[in-house]
C-alpha cells in the first residue's frame, strides 16, 4: 500500500505514541452491535429469571386499580399516595433488569475500548444531519455500499433464525385459538423467548466477528512508514516529558540495584559527599575487588545511608572515590593502577572484621 505523504509503504506496526494519539481521537476498534447484542441477551435472561415477579406485580396492580376498591373509587387526597405506591412497586420489580442492563452496557464498552472518555464524540456535529451526505454514505461506492450489503445480509440471517424458532411451533400457534387466555399467553411467551434468545446469540457472534474486523482494519490504517517511525523517534527523544520519565526510570532502577548491592559490600569509599563507591572482594572468585554500586550526589547519600543501616564500613578517600567512580562501571573489577590503594583499604576492613586471613591467603 503506497503512501505518497510518508515517502514509502506503510509496513511498520504503529508505535505506542501513534496508538495513543488515535485513541485520543476516538479511532479505536468498537462494535456497536456487540453492546446491543449483549444487552438483548442479558434482557432475555433477566426477564426469564425476574419475569414471574414482574407479572405478579402487574397482576396485583391491575386488581388494585380496576377492582371494586380501585383508584376510581378512591378519594382525591389519597390518590397521590396510592399512585406513588404503585410506581414504587413497578420500579422495584423492574430495578434488577434495569441495573443488569446498565452493567452489561458498561462492561461491554470497557471490554472493547477500556476506561476512556472521548469528549470529541459527544460534541454536536451538524454535518451529520445532512440527508444527502447520509444517502451518499449508504448508496455510495466503497465502504458505504459494503456496509449496506452487510446489513441486508444480517437482516436475512436474523429473519432465518427467527423463522427457525417458530417453524416447529406453527401447529401449536394455530391451535392456540382453542385455548384460554393464560395458555395463549404462555405459548406466546415461549415463542418470543426462543426467537429473542436465538437472535441475541446470532447478533453476539456477528458482533464479535465485526469487532475483530474493526481491530484489524484500524491496525492497518495506523501502520506507519519507516520514515514516520524515525521522525516520531526523533520527536519523542526531544520531548522533555519523555526525557524526565526516562531519568526517573533510570533513577528507580539505580536505586533498586543500590538497595540490593550495598548491604553485600565490604566497604564504601567516599568523596566524602559527592561520590560513593561500594567495593566487594571474595577470595577465590575474584581477581580483584569489584565495584558493586556507585553514585553521585543524591545517590551517593543513599549509598551511605544504606551502608550505615547495614553496618558496612565507610571510609573517606576523595581521590580514590573520584577515580573509581569515573573509570569503573558497576560489576567491573577495579583497574590495576588502584590495586595498592584498594588493598590497603581492604586490609584495614578485613582486619577489623576478622577476615584478614582471607586476604593474606589470596
Strand line-up of the largest beta sheet: 5-4-3-6
- How far from one another are the termini? 68 Å
Count of discrete alpha- or pi-helical segments spanning 4 or more residues: 13
Helix content: 55-70%
Average pLDDT confidence is 78
Structural class: alpha+beta
Shape: elongated
- As a whole number of angstroms, the C-alpha radius of gyration is 38 Å
Strand elements, count: 6
Order of helices and strands: EEHHHHHHHHHEEEHEHHH
Written description of the protein model:
This protein is an alpha+beta fold and 362 residues long. Helices cover 66% and strands 7% of the residues. It contains 13 helices and six strands. The strands form two sheets. The chain has a four-stranded mixed beta sheet with strand order 5-4-3-6, with helices on both faces. β1 (2-3) and β2 form a beta hairpin. α2 (32-66) runs antiparallel to α3 (76-113), α4 crosses α5 (143-166) and α5 packs antiparallel against α7 (181-221). The protein is elongated. The two termini are 68 Å apart.
SSE blueprint:
Layout: E1 2-3, E2 8-9, H1 16-24, H2 32-66, H3 76-113, H4 131-139, H5 143-166, H6 170-175, H7 181-221, H8 226-238, H9 240-261, E3 267-270, E4 275-280, E5 290-296, H10 298-309, E6 314-316, H11 318-327, H12 339-353, H13 356-361
Parallel strand pairs: 3-6
Antiparallel strand pairs: 1-2, 3-4, 4-5
Amino acid at each position: 500500500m503506497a503512501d505518497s505523504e510518508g515517502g514509502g509503504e506503510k509496513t511498520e506496526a504503529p508505535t505506542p505514541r501513534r496508538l495513543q494519539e488515535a485513541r485520543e481521537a476516538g479511532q479505536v476498534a468498537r462494535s456497536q452491535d456487540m453492546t446491543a447484542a449483549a444487552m438483548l441477551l442479558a434482557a432475555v435472561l433477566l426477564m426469564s429469571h425476574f419475569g414471574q415477579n414482574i407479572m405478579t406485580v402487574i397482576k396485583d396492580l391491575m386488581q388494585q386499580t380496576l377492582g371494586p376498591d380501585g383508584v376510581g373509587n378512591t378519594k382525591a387526597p389519597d390518590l397521590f399516595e396510592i399512585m406513588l405506591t404503585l410506581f414504587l412497586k413497578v420500579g422495584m420489580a423492574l430495578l434488577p433488569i434495569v441495573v443488569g442492563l446498565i452493567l452489561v452496557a458498561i462492561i461491554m464498552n470497557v471490554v472493547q475500548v477500556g476506561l476512556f472518555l472521548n469528549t470529541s464524540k459527544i460534541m454536536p456535529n451538524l454535518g451529520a444531519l445532512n440527508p444527502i451526505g447520509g444517502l451518499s454514505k449508504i448508496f455510495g461506492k466503497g465502504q458505504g455500499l459494503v456496509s449496506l450489503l452487510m446489513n441486508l445480509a444480517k437482516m436475512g440471517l436474523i429473519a432465518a433464525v427467527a423463522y427457525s424458532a417458530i417453524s416447529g411451533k406453527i401447529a401449536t400457534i394455530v391451535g392456540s385459538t382453542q385455548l384460554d387466555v393464560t395458555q395463549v399467553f404462555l405459548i406466546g411467551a415461549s415463542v418470543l423467548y426462543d426467537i429473542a434468545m436465538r437472535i441475541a446469540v446470532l447478533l453476539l457472534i456477528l458482533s464479535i466477528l465485526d469487532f475483530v474486523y474493526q481491530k484489524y482494519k484500524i491496525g492497518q490504517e495506523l501502520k506507519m512508514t519507516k520514515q514516520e517511525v524515525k521522525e516520531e523517534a526523533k520527536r519523542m527523544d526531544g520531548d522533555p516529558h519523555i526525557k524526565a520519565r526516562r531519568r526517573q526510570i533510570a533513577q528507580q532502577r539505580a536505586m533498586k540495584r543500590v538497595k540490593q548491592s550495598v548491604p553485600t559490600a565490604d566497604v564504601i569509599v567516599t568523596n566524602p559527599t559527592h561520590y560513593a563507591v561500594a567495593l566487594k572482594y571474595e577470595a577465590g572468585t575474584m581477581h580483584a575487588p569489584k565495584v558493586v554500586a556507585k553514585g553521585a550526589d543524591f545517590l551517593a547519600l543513599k549509598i551511605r545511608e544504606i551502608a550505615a543501616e547495614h553496618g558496612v564500613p565507610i571510609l573517606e578517600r576523595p581521590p580514590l572515590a573520584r577515580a573509581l567512580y569515573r573509570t569503573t562501571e558497576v560489576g567491573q573489577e577495579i583497574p590495576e593502577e588502584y590495586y595498592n590503594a584498594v588493598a590497603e583499604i581492604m586490609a584495614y576492613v578485613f582486619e577489623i572484621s576478622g577476615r584478614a586471613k582471607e586476604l593474606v591467603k589470596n
